[in-house]
Amino acid sequence: MSWSETFRTAIEALLGRRMRSLLTMLGILIGIAAVMLTVGLGEGARHQITAEINKLGSNLLIVMPGSLSGGSAAAPGASSLTLADAALLSDPAVAPDVAGVAPVMGTRVSVQRGTESWSSTTTGTTVDWTDVRGRALVDGRFFTEVEQASAAQVAVLGPTVAGHLFEDSPAVGQEIVMSGQTFLVVGVLESVGANAMSNDDDLVVLPITTVAQRLVPPAMAGGLQSIYVAARDDASISSAHQQITRALTVNHGTTSADQDFSIMTFQALLTAMDTMTGVLTTLLAGLAGISLVVGGIGVMNIMLVSVTERVREIGLRKALGATPALIRRQFLVEAGILGLLGGALGVLLGITGALILTPLLDLQVTVSLPATALALAVSLGIGIIAGTYPASRAANLPPIDALRSDR
What we know:
Blueprint: H1 3-15, H2 18-56, E1 60-65, H3 83-89, E2 98-113, E3 116-125, H4 129-133, E4 137-140, H5 145-149, E5 154-157, H6 159-165, E6 175-178, E7 181-189, E8 203-207, H7 208-214, E9 226-231, H8 237-252, E10 261-265, H9 266-309, H10 311-319, H11 324-361, H12 369-395, H13 399-404
Parallel strand pairs: 3-8, 5-7
Antiparallel strand pairs: 1-9, 1-10, 2-3, 2-6, 2-9, 4-7, 5-8, 6-7
């Protein structure tokens, strides 16, 4: 019997038991679709997290007061970081791999314009903030070094603040009121959206001297909320981290055991998030894969039933000269077709589910071509593996016993 005849006979046998074949494929179908959607959701979440972190700046480091390892901390209401620290990190002789530094001093305020009011966060910083954070303006300009030196009452609004206070008119050139003081709006930032940690569109950017002298209590005017540091490039992050650590440790008179500051890199955060999503995806895919095992057991069960029902047919084939290898091949092909068809239908269901879930969850469910090919290969393999025992049982039936059967 040729391979083409084997396939034709296998398809005829499966079509002769359509409902049974469909129900047998159901377990593999559901398993493949579940695994595809689970992995697709995990990949989509990973890509979205990566995109959000990259928007913040993959070469960005954030120096914060207080130690994450339980070392020294600043007194309540104070900060261990100062403008002198920011100036030190800006020195190329101290940190040659640092491309830019932007100290931040912030507070929560109510921003008013006429009868309109909006609660937002002020970000007191320096003129290098836009370069360090990679922010652009859609209207107006950023404040200047002269305005920073003179503690000028000028403000650059985030798009969220501008949208709430100036719905019907341009914000640039208008005045706003914060803490009873009037500020001139000189620019509006381009939107970058919200992320897992903050809404970078909901802020008011001011010269750091203005915030220190006009908006925060005198006791807090000397401390910084954080220092944003941009490394020269992604490859320089590690060396920049070491240079910052060494410079601040010496400047603060501390040691590695009692540091009063901590440094966060988005690259490290990205690696941690990637590991977490990878572990979660693997776990969920493993759980979904259990249905593939169940589907394989279903194929084996149905193939055993098929062998029992076709004992006389097997005997006739052997009596006509069919070898055990040909009998084994016949049943393996049938089991393989069941697995492959179940996998193909599962792939179609997985793709359909991805198209439906993407707009519902506002998350791109990724279905890749390699994953699809792997799913089909796995389903074919499950069918063949599950059919091995029934096929061997059929191949080993004695011809005399098979011909005596009334089945």
